Amino acid sequence: MQSMPEAGVLATQIPDITEIPALAIMRDVANNGPWADNPAVSRVVREQMPRPESYYDQLKPLSARVDIWRTTYHHVLLDPDAIVEWFKGSTLQPLISR
């Protein structure tokens, strides 16, 4: 923010899916399987993200205006296999590759 030009705009998107049930299950598997002592596995699944209020508190002293919003996208998946397929290309990838 300090290197931005005056009247500049900073826009970011931070995926915040750490509270969804699928990630809770992935954390449980990563932390309780026979690989739980493997640091490469234990750091794979993200822990909770900071609350939006904390981003506001950090950015407000550095800017004239801060707008923060949170959006939830709902995806209807037909069955557990579809859920695995959805996450296979992203969040599950590090666990699958181990």
Produce the secondary structure layout.
Blueprint: H1 21-32, H2 39-42, H3 52-59, H4 80-88, H5 93-97
What does this 3D model show about the protein?
With 98 residues, the protein is mostly helical. The protein has one domain. It has 5 helices and no strands.
Outline of the structure:
With 98 residues, the protein is an all-alpha fold.
Structural class: mainly alpha
Distance N terminus to C terminus? 38 Å
Approximate strand percentage:
under 5%
Low-confidence stretches: none
Percent helix range: 25-40%
Mean pLDDT: 82
Number of domains: 1
- Tally of individual helices: 5
- Give the overall shape, derived from the CA principal axes: elongated
Order of helices and strands: HHHHH
The largest pleated sheet is described as: none
What Rg is obtained from the alpha carbons, in whole angstroms? 18 Å
Beta strand count: 0
Descriptors for this entry?
5 helices, 0% strand, 39% helix, elongated, 98 residues, mainly alpha, single chain
